[in-house]
Amino acid sequence: MINALICPNCGASLPLPSANSEVVTCQYCNTTFRASQTLTPEPDIGNLVLGADFGQAPIAGWNFPNKDKVRLINGSPPELRARFPASSELYYVLNSSGYFDDVDASVSIRFYEGNLDYIDAGLVLRYQKGLGSYFVLISPLGTYTVAYYEKGDKDELVWRTIMNWTKHSAIHPGLNQVNRLRFIARGDHLRVYINGVLATSLHDDRYDEGEVILAAEGTGKSSVEVGFSGLQLREANK
Known about the structure:
It is a single chain. By secondary structure, the chain is mainly β. The protein has two domains: 1-41, no CATH class; 43-234, Exo-inulinase, domain 1 (Jelly Rolls, Sandwich), CATH 2.60.120. It has strands at 5-6, 13-14, 23-25, 32-34, 48-51, 62-63, 70-73, 79-84, 91-96, 103-113, 120-128, 132-138, 143-151, 157-167, 178-186, 189-194, 197-203, 211-217, 224-234. Strands 5, 7, 8, 10, 15, 16, 17 and 19 form an eight-stranded antiparallel β-sheet that branches. A seven-stranded antiparallel β-sheet has the order 6-9-18-11-12-13-14, with no helix packed on it. A two-stranded antiparallel sheet has the order 1-2. It is globular.
């Protein structure tokens, strides 16, 4: 029998909300979140359409664009660990073998090494080679950004920011901290959840389908080592 609600930010056990209340505020970290009828602090999750077992290769439905830079660790949970040298390039760690339009993507991210000022990682949705995609990246500084790539005048992909790097109290800052990132795209509606807390909700109609990608970067001033676990692609509910 469920007799407690877990705060998505600090993990504290909280009393169940009253029958006519869907909003809960954690008494320990003061995070306010929605508690649905199923007692999840986020929108109810849809059916699983594609997962990833990082315990062993190959991983059905996924590709490694930088295979020499990643390794699988069969731990608890199994983890995809990636290490990239200092570079201005945003590296792709794992990409889906097919296209997805409306999708609910989530993954847990842990930074292991790198200068905290210059490393980040996250999710890419609706990626089409040569055309563009959406990005949500988080950093160990406790910040996140929403952006997209688009085709430039010289046919190169140009980075455009939808929302600049912004601090968010739901992010657990520092190395060796696990953060759950969830990026939902349904039609032109994009939503970002961090550790169960709604961080951003916006509308953008540039891209309607494409690959799902895990990405990481260290910029030209730092290498980066990051782990991904619990990757799930689900149907995007309202």
